[in-house]
Every structure is written in structure tokens, then in C-alpha cells.
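Everyone, study these two lines:
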Amino acid sequence: MSLSHDPVLPLLRTKLVCGFRDIAGETYAGRSGLHASANPAARTTNGAGPHNLQVFLLAPDGTVLHCLPGYWDPQDLAFEIAFAEQLWGVWRDSSLTRAQKDERFRALHVAHVDAHPQEMVDRSPMQSFDKKYETKKRPETSDCILREGSRQPRLRPRGKRQQDEFKTTDQIAHERMAARPFVPYAKFDTARFVDYGRPLYDKRKLDGCGDHKH
């Protein structure tokens, strides 16, 4: 539903060439049960359902500028599209060496977390069942957890239930992208990039924990 709403729709019409790829059958694809095409899409939190959907923002030559896993609010998606345009400017700058481009890519992605408005951060907490999965399956290795030595973001979610040790999904996405400077789409390790939270979502068992239908 993000793509069909303002302020994203005008950007799709004027700034981007759009396409899609069916990821059904990929090892990383989510298994969330059927969602009938006639059923309305639901709003949820940014980054929910990372295995179900990924929004790639590419340069004309297929280089990945940004990837947003899962659902993203239209306001926040538009904000990230503008950021990808800034990265494209770096990629096509012939005065920079490849090493300089990569360094700027990393720095811009990390710095962009602190440019996110409070409302975006408030829309970006991990789903509760995804937090439980990370805590149970990889408590010592998950990069979704704010540990001692982790980069501390400028803002944190204001909701009392979200004031915990977990990073927000906007921070996770930018930090993971910072480790993948200007990678060709064909070589992008999507499976690792979207690997957070539950790969299997069962609404019957998880009702009350949040919803990430797409």
C-alpha cells in the first residue's frame, strides 16, 4: 500500500523506473500463509515482514543504492528514496575513486540514521515476536540488539513498550547497507540482508503480537 499513496506515488511516476521480481521459492522468502489479492493491505511498522518483501533502489546500471526490507510507511519510504538519489550522485561522480565512493557510501548510510525524524523512529520498532526470535535464537550474535559498543542512535522510540535493548529497523537497514557499498543487484546477498526475526509467521499463534501481512 505504500507504493500507491502520496508522497511515494508521484516519485514513482517522475523519478523511478519500476519493476518487480517474484521471490516465491527463494530460500529467504517468508512463509506467512496466504493473503488473498482481494483483501486490503494493512499498515504495520517499518521493516515488518523482511522476508516477504524487499524494496530495492538501484542506479540505472543495476547497482544497489539502498534496500528496504519489509513494509515501510509512505512518508518514510519517500524519505529513503530521496536519500538513494543522493547516493546515486556519489556513484556517478567521476571525480571520485572507487575507494572514495565506497567510503562515502558507508558514511552516508550510518549518518542517515541520525537524520531520521522522531515520527519515523516511532514507526520503526521491531515486531515483538521478531524480538523474541532474535533473543532465543542468537542472543550473543544478533546485530539487532543495542550492545555495549553499539552505535547509539540520536533518537529512540517514544512508546514505553519499545524502550528496550533492540535497535529500530531503520537503524538495522542502514547499518547493514553500510557494509555493502555499491554492490551489483545480481551479487547482493539478499538472504543475509533480510535475516532478522521469524522466517515463519503464523497469525493464529501470534495474534496480539503485531501483524505484518503484505
